[in-house]
Amino acid sequence: MPNKSYVNYKNRGMFLEHILNDTNQYYLREDKAIIYKKPTPIKVLNVSYRSRKTTIINKAVFSETSTLDYNGIYKGKYIEFDAKECKSKTSFPLSNIKEHQMIHIKNILNHGGIVFLIIFICNNFYLFDGKDLIDFVNNNDRKSIPIETIIKQGHIINEGYIPRLDYISVVENVYFKENNYGEFEK
Amino acid sequence: MPNKSYVNYKNRGMFLEHILNDTNQYYLREDKAIIYKKPTPIKVLNVSYRSRKTTIINKAVFSETSTLDYNGIYKGKYIEFDAKECKSKTSFPLSNIKEHQMIHIKNILNHGGIVFLIIFICNNFYLFDGKDLIDFVNNNDRKSIPIETIIKQGHIINEGYIPRLDYISVVENVYFKENNYGEFEK
Q1: Contact between chains at B39 and A110 (C-beta distance less than 8 A)
Q2: In this structure, what CATH number is given to the domain that contains residue B79?
Q3: How far away is chain B from the Cα of A74, in angstroms, using its nearest Cα?
Q4: Which chain A positions have a beta carbon within 8 Å of B28's beta carbon?
Q5: ipTM entry
Q6: B144 domain residue, yes or no
Q7: Which residues of A touch B44 (CB under 8 A)?
Q8: Do A80 and A67 meet the contact criterion of CB atoms below 8 Å apart?
Q9: For the segment A89-137, what is each residue's pLDDT rounded down to a tens digit?
């Protein structure tokens, strides 16, 4: 049964992007991390030139990306992640992650980078580690990650005011303070 | 006096992008580094929907980027750079780097990232370190970096066949083998 307040999925997508952009600007201002959303790849098919400085694109289409949407640096480490909103309340469909993105996640892990998903499901934000994602795919035939697995293996990110979604505190706990997760309080 | 073979600056720009994309694909295939060019940021002004899956962009303009064009990971370290072709044979105009990009370069340095320019000038490719760039700007009133400074402080990147521009070998030397630069031979 669809939840009325979540009917407009397109706006929900923009909502998550918006609070992440706000958060990333906060991190930049506070000099805590440098994370940017990559521009959406667009294939330009036709342009016209109004002046030397103004090019108008008359025809273009969105194209697919091989990577995840956000990347940058925190404490010298390479960080990459994608943010996904999930309308299902029972599981996160793996169709959200394209096959070449899955390969990309494995590559980043192999090169020592930090890679994860931020999953918005059941009104909660979870950081779900890239390695846990790969392990799940390798060890299951399921086409979605059940909510129980996300709750168990994921790390909750609390919503706040400033910053709105302090995922770097969770990154700090999960990747920089090993064996200390759960004791951290901001 | 313009060199006839360099009259088409637009194609020259594409040429450098092309050999870097080739090189980055090679690094990816060989599992040596993961470096991507960020998509050019485009501001979409008008779209039409042909079907649920096909969105046609009818009007858009190119917008400015705050970051550099290429970023990724090598040996766990965050790497970011921009590639610039320079038509002048005597100096590299600093107008090539926007003020917010200069701030971004400082930020990356402060966070322990590797950041540089690849400058194509006088038919040679040079890796010019971000810190050297910042130091030059801080210590000079000049609006361009003279070729002598680029030759002295920059690190030449040899053109090859596969990969076409092995800048990662130079990164290895400059950032991972301190005090050993110049002795390295590929």
Answers
A1: no
A2: 3.40.1350.10
A3: 7
A4: 107
A5: 0.84
A6: yes
A7: 42
A8: yes
A9: 999 999 999 999 999 999 999 999 999 999 999 999 999 999 999 999 9
